[in-house]
Amino acid sequence: MRTFSFSLLTFSLLCFLAGCLPAPYFQKEEVVPQGAWTYNFKPSFEFEITDTSVGYQPYFLIRHTQAYPYSNLWVLLYITVPGDSIVKVERVNVPLAENTGKWLGRGMGEIYEQRLPMNLGDSVHFNKKGIYKISMEQNMRVNPLPEVLNVGLRISIKGSS
């Protein structure tokens, strides 16, 4: 009985602590069809910024298998800012493995996932209220890019992740 009570208390405490973790401002992921990212699959994410007094940090989300054949991923980001008709383009390098070949991120079985902060340079500061749109295109030399399961975007308020 004592072991059961301790287990119940531990589980309750873990649930409470998990409930205290900050939620992202925005997060969405797209499943890559057949686990192979083609040039014409360009997931698009729209989100609204309503408070420009806080800072925002964008993250690139990816889930891939251990059979992914490269240590990185090049992605083109097409960014539309509220009130601007010009689409800004950023080319971003996403490291997926250390120089030793060890995968970065969290792994479970054959699947690895990462949340990597994106530096968008001068393209985006999220300092205008309105709807932002970010589309992603894989920019590797191989098409389709195998063993990529999901890609996504997360926007967090700076100071929380």
Entry keywords:
four-stranded antiparallel beta sheet; globular; 11% helix; 161 residues
Describe this structure in words.
- The chain is mainly beta and 161 residues long.
- It has a single domain, classed as Sandwich (Jelly Rolls), CATH 2.60.120.
- The chain is 11% helix and 45% strand.
- It has one helix and eleven strands, in the order H-E-E-E-E-E-E-E-E-E-E-E.
- The strands form three sheets. A five-stranded antiparallel beta sheet has the order 1-11-4-8-7, with no helix packed on it.
- It is globular, with a radius of gyration of 19 Å.
SSE blueprint:
Blueprint: H1 2-19, E1 26-31, E2 36-37, E3 44-49, E4 56-65, E5 72-80, E6 88-95, E7 106-108, E8 111-117, E9 130-138, E10 145-146, E11 148-157
The overall strand count is 11
Shape: globular
Q: How many independent structural domains?
A: 1
Largest sheet: 5 strands, antiparallel
CATH class annotation: Mainly Beta
Which residue ranges are poorly predicted, with pLDDT under 50 across at least 5 consecutive positions? Answer: 2-19
SSE ordering: HEEEEEEEEEEE
Q: In the CATH hierarchy, what is the architecture at level 2?
A: Sandwich
Which percent range fits the helix content? 10-25%
First-last Cα distance: 39 Å
Within the largest sheet, what's the order of strands?
A: 1-11-4-8-7
SS-based structural class? mainly beta
CATH topology: Jelly Rolls
Radius of gyration: 19 Å
Strand content: 35-45%
Number of helices: 1
Mean pLDDT: 86
Quaternary structure: single chain
